[in-house]
Amino acid sequence: MTTSTGDAVRPYTGDALTALLPPDLRLLGLGEPTHGVEAFPELRNELFRHLVEHEGYRSIAIESDCLAALAADAYVTDGIGTLDEVMAHGFSHGAGAYPANRELLRWMRTHNEQRPPHERLRFYGFDGPLEISGATSPHAALTGLYDYLAAHLDLPWSRATLDELLGSDGHWTHPAVMLDPNRSVGRTPEARELRLVADDLRVLLTAHAPQLTAATSADDWWRADLYSRTVTGLLRYHAGLADTTPDRISALLGQRGVMMADNLDAIVRREARRGPTLVFAHNSHLQRYESSMPFGGLRVRWWSAGAMIATRLGDRYAFVATTFGARGADVPGPDTLEGVLSTVPHARAVVDPQMFAAALDRTLTPRVPADYTYSGLDPATLDRIDAIVFVKEI
Questions:
Q1: What is the pLDDT at residue 151?
Q2: Is residue 24 situated within a structural domain?
Q3: pLDDT tens sequence across 206-241
Q4: Which residues does UniProt call coiled coil (predicted)?
Q5: Are residues 165 and 127 in the same domain?
Q6: Which pLDDT score is estimated for 31?
Q7: Domains in the chain: how many in total?
Q8: Which of 132, 125, 129, 197 is nearest to 161 (CA)?
Q9: Could you write out the three-class secondary structure of 115-133?
């Protein structure tokens, strides 16, 4: 590594990272290159503590079910439930089993115990109620929205009508649906009617926001709005599951990205008076450039939540990509970004991507990792990354 390239690299600290970021951030995206490796959520926890203590952050959002996360937020803000219960029911994608997530909630709860409500840290999930195997039933989100509105407005539908249209949850969540669009109920007459109902309920929620907020609270209205965003997104996603065209998977990934971006937008607006938010997810969900991955022998492409939210927030959004060098026998080649960074002496490093790219004296090739669950950084995208955190070995 040349001296000029080395000038773009510093040992990792919270201060070294934030020094590379634009001022007046509202949302800071910290990506990870793979799931299930504790080094990355542990790094996230360390960074979040720094941001809370030195940069005025008061909230964190992670790649997990937005509805399930309500239980985790209730625990960290008000001590409702137990930590074991929240780890079992407050996460999706198996994230409740990660020790770093348990430590995050424990630390947030301890931090909040002696603070007034307006200063307490909040926890969010920003993903839809989705798993790799499919999507949940829209039942919980739709009835949550309906019950909130029905307590204060005269609605032209009954709960019995909604239950009849929804049918059994098992029809929505059948495991064969993800691979067989013909098993999906997302485009049945009942599902189409539910999409109209959900849209009308969302309009009522918005139109009567002053009345509803005064009768309940801003937090209650925000939760109802979360139900509204979720049910409309879920019904749209289930309709996508019934799609039989070749672009089905790309379209589903794009719809998931829209749900994520809309949730992040709502979180930023809710937190506007309290401070910026840290969001943690896979790099592919937070990057500004087009995302892609192999699926069924093809390469599917979509625009991520990060790319979408960047168009809304501009320079108030920053993306920090995380990557690593050696993982057992999987060692990056010398002409990859990770290979060059592996020559630095630091176990963890902060990299200025623009300075690093300007100092390179050769063209780097994208890393093709041995483990397909890991995504290397494309050197051609360095101009669209605000900072890189490099972990030398995991």
A1: 98
A2: yes
A3: 999 999 999 999 999 999 999 999 999 999 999 999
A4: none
A5: no
A6: 97
A7: 2
A8: 197
A9: CCHHHCCEEEEEECCEECC
- Contact between 155 and 149 under an 8 Å Cβ cutoff? The reply is yes
Amino acid at 47: L
pLDDT at 370: 79
* Bridge partners, residue 291, by sequence: 302
118: in domain: yes
In a domain, 253, yes or no: no
| Sequence-ordered alpha helix ranges (H) in 7-138 | 14-18, 39-54, 69-78, 83-89, 99-112
CA distance 354 to 317: 17
Question: Are residues 10 and 99 located together in one domain of the fold?
Answer: yes
Residue 187, pLDDT score:
97
In a domain, 249, yes or no: no
The token pair that represents 233 in the structure block: 């997104």
* Helix (H/G/I), strand (E/B), else coil: 161: helix
Do residues 162 and 73 both lie within one domain?
Answer: no
pTM of the model as a whole: 0.95
Where is the domain boundary, 190, 211, 244? Answer: 244
Domain endpoint, select from 209, 244, 279 = 244
Q: What is the pLDDT of residue 4?
A: 61
User: pLDDT at position 39, please?
Assistant: 95
What is the number of residues in the chain? 394
Low-confidence ranges of the chain (pLDDT < 50): 1
Q: Is the domain of 150 the same as that of 125?
A: no
- Residue ranges making up the domain that contains 151: 135-244
Q: Helix 99-112 crosses helix 69-78 at what angle (to 10 degrees)? A: 40
Amino acid symbol at 383? D
Whether residues 269 and 224 share a domain: the answer is no
What pLDDT shows up at residue 294? 81
